[in-house]
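User: Fold this one for me? It's Histidine/lysine/arginine/ornithine transport system permease protein HisM.
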Amino acid sequence: MIELIRQYWPNYLYTDGFNYNGLVITLWLLVVSVGLGFALAVPLAIARASRNRYLSGPVWLYTYVFRGTPLYVQLLLFYTGLYSLHFIHEHEMLNSFFRNAMYCTLLAFTLNECAYATEIFAGAIKETSHGEIEAALAYGMSKYKLYTRIILPSALRRSLPSYSNEVILMLHATTLAFTATVPDILKVARDVNSATYATFQAYGIAAILYAAIVFSLIWGFRKMEIRLLAYLKPQGH
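Assistant: Here's what I get for Histidine/lysine/arginine/ornithine transport system permease protein HisM.
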């Protein structure tokens, strides 16, 4: 394995000499999909938690579809399915977008991540203490201030443990990117295995890299939970 690492470690970590590869691509997929998914999920979660069916209904349908179908199927639909439609070819921008494997992969990952995050945040919003809401209304807060100062900060803090698990699951899901020829860690491991026939070593290195990322995420989220959820711990007398 040491000789394999010495020969192929640039491919696993960042580049094959021409394009970015491996760890860099995996982290890029994770950061972009989680970042965009979070940005979209917050307003959608507010709509999902609304009592107005015209707001919550479409969001429920979106999350139902994307949580109810496999991510792999969604990726194939975006990468090969949509490109087979005639109107995609007729529109220059759409044609260029759906011909790019990275764009299609990021789109599928982002929409899938957003669907799960939306339900997590919406559940936390619905579980906000009525006492906090009544106190804010009694103080004279507008609905906008009520959400930005009370409901959202509290909900996002309380949803942190569930959301951290979702981010880790999203990291695991990035392994599907190799099916769209995106050169992530798993794609590099498969190429190394094809070149060397050292199957255990090739995929063993990939497993170590994924485990290192997961442990880093767990450590980071644990630190955030200790800091942001300290007020929920029982206070000593």
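One thing worth pointing out: The CA atoms of residues 47 and 229 lie 25 Å apart.
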